[in-house]
Amino acid sequence: MATRLWNLVLGLATRLGFSREWWLLVVAAGVGLIMGVAGYLFIKPIQWLEHLAEEFGAESPSTLLWLLPIIPVIGAVLTGLLAWRCPTEFKGHGVSNVIYGVIRKQSRLRLRLLVRQWIGSTLTIGSGGSAGPEGPIVTIGAVIGSNLARLLRLDAKSGTTLLGCGAAAGLASVFNAPIAGIFFVLEVLLRDFSLRTFTPIVIASVLAAATTQSILGSNEPLFGVGPEFFENNPVPFTIGMTPAFVAFGVACGLVAVLFIRTMQWSERCFSRIPVPDALRPGVGALLLGILGVGYMLLVAPRGTDLTSDPVPPFFGNGYTVIMRLLDPASYVDAAGSMIADGTGVVIGILLLLVVLKIVSTSLTLGSGGAGGLFAPALMVGAIIGSMFGLIVAQTGWFPGASPAHFALVGMAAMVAATTHAPMTGVMLVYEITQTYSLIVPLMLCAVISVIVGRVFYRESVYTAELAAAGIRVGGSTDLTLLRQLTVRDVPLMPPVTVRPDDSGQRLLDLSERFAVSDFVVVDDQDNYLGMVTGADLQAALVFREAIPLLQVNEIERTDLPSMVLDDTLDVALDRFSEHDSASLAVLSKPGDGRVIGVLTRTRLMREYQHALEES
User: Fold this and answer.
1) Do 218 and 238 share a structural domain?
2) I want to staple 165 with a disulfide (CB 3.0 to 4.6 A). Which of 28, 86, 134, 527 is the partner?
3) What is the CA radius of gyration of the chain?
4) Is 577 exposed, middle or buried (0-12, 13-18, 19+ CB in 10 A)?
5) What are the residue ranges of helices labelled H in 420-503?
6) Closest listed residue to residue 206, CA positions, set 374, 23, 42, 33
7) Is-contact 433 398, C-beta < 8 A?
8) By C-alpha distance, which of 49, 479, 58, 402 is closest to 231?
9) Residue 51: inside a domain, yes or no?
10) Closest CA to 365 of 95, 598, 148, 160
11) Residue 595: which region, alpha, beta or left (left: phi > 0; alpha: psi -120 to 50)?
């Protein structure tokens, strides 16, 4: 009934002159409104749990110290059990799962991914796990957009666009940064800057941010860092500052590589621990709790106002630490002068905190906890920037520049270097602070950090998991188009089948009768075994007199993979390239050996060219 009503509405809209693109804009607006509310509902419980932990730590620090190894383990074990009950096809973090869905599943994401990310991230972050809420809200938005497209029976291209609308709207909702949400989706998820994709994503992102701010009744992002920190602290950027900011960008790029590599190493180590998958997050949380106890006993008593917290500062998403590092008042004494005494101790503790944040995030997410990598990257960047700013302040290179300014630039540079998305990092930090005077050093450091990061390691924090699984992400709109087409879209050649015990003479006869050069080898039940290619047959013709004595099983190739109708064309192109074949057998579905056709490289490229002309 619902499908019939929807088709009636579509037919009426078409008669009234509304094309599919116009309907997509309307649906994108709906996605934005939904995600504006969803972002608020998702982030508030996490904030409440973190605020509760801070209040408890302030009132009963000794009791909290005993609970540090326990509470994260409880949250992590519950997260592990949830992941066990809601498995995903690709074992990766939320954003990596979305990218996998875009490039391998025609942007089809299951609702169980939403449940896993929403509840799992709340449990992980709320119990002290070192992770952020941005990756999960991006995933939640992507799942909502994907399933809405499936509900409305939209094609793959429109489904991918709605997935991007949901992801951008989620990020815009949490940060009050619609432009950053747009660029994140275009740079990281879709890698498609076409106008058809861009317009709906803009609408969804803007409406999501507006909806969340309407609920809050303010113009601040949900995590509380607003532009008031920088209203009275402008910083001029001159040519003399360029070398310092270039060096700073290089440092951020190197730390970003260390961050990504540590994450990968942690995932490999935890995968080898002989415990059930559901319990591995508990192991990581236990190690995190022990690390937290050690910090509170050994380091916290020597800390300063910049690093003092009722709970270890590397627990949770780290926004309270970021807020202090971004506040210029944190770096001046009672007389209003820049702090000088104890700067070496502060820098040492901040350096230790960088290491601890990277390690704690690797323990949390590498063991299987739920959460995002955005917030940890922001915190690490802010700490590095604060350290750099304190050093600069002591040297007197840039009078009037506060370490808070460098902390801000560090945030943009680390986000850019870890995600390989420079515009996302720049626009995110700019929209948070609304401070235009920093836009030039922001862009410079972001670009330098991405270049350095890619020189030392090709993959981003999201694509590293995909690369480890042998999945090539690529980056062009042409590749995006290939991922939107499937084998089903290409006219297949009818298969010419032979048996393993057929003679070579039969191959010649069939070749003359059907004008084909590639043959599919099947068994007695017509199940796929391999192929005899034209090149193999030509090689056999060198000894033509032996052809009647030759059998198919002597020249067939069993290494050639088969395809199914739902495989995307980028997968098919990869297999053609890997096996140097002009044809591949197509099966009806995975697990069924029945051959229904032959996909040729020529027909694949012809369909691709046709799709390019229409795009």
Assistant:
1) no
2) 28
3) 28
4) exposed
5) 422-433, 439-456, 463-468, 477-484
6) 33
7) no
8) 402
9) yes
10) 95
11) beta
Q: Are residues 199 and 279 in the same domain?
A: no
Q: Which pLDDT score is estimated for 18?
A: 45
Distances (CA, A) of 414 to 192, 434, 441: 23, 19, 14
The upper half-sphere exposure of residue 469, i.e. CA atoms within 13 Å in the direction of its Cβ, equals 16
Length of the chain: 615
Q: Are 604 and 573 in contact (CB under 8 A)?
A: yes
Counting residues of the chain whose pLDDT is more than 90, the rounded percentage is 14
Q: What dihedral angle (degrees, nearest 10) is formed by the CA atoms of 248, 301, 67, 51?
A: -60
The amino acid sitting at 446 is: A
Distance separating alpha carbons of residues 369 and 81, to the nearest angstrom: 11
Question: Of 224, 243, 267, which marks where a domain is finished?
Answer: 224
Distance from C-alpha of 259 to C-alpha of 358, rounded to nearest angstrom: 6
Q: Which of 148, 117, 143, 135 is nearest to 181 (CA)?
A: 135
The C-alpha atoms of residue 27 and residue 149 are separated, in whole angstroms, by 9
532-571 pLDDT, tens per residue? Answer: 888 877 777 666 666 677 887 888 888 888 899 888 888 8
CA terminus-to-terminus distance, the chain: 33
For residue 573, the domain's CATH number is 3.10.580.10
Q: Which helix (H) or strand (E) holds 321?
A: helix 319-325
Burial (CB < 10 A; 0-12, 13-18, 19+), residue 469, is exposed
Q: Which domain holds residue 197?
A: 17-224
11 assigned to some structural domain: no
CATH of the domain at 398: 1.10.3080.10
User: Which residue is associated with the tokens 């915190």?
Assistant: 379
- Decide: residue 467, CB within 10 A, 0-12 exposed, 13-18 middle, 19+ buried: middle
Q: Are 172 and 241 members of one domain?
A: no
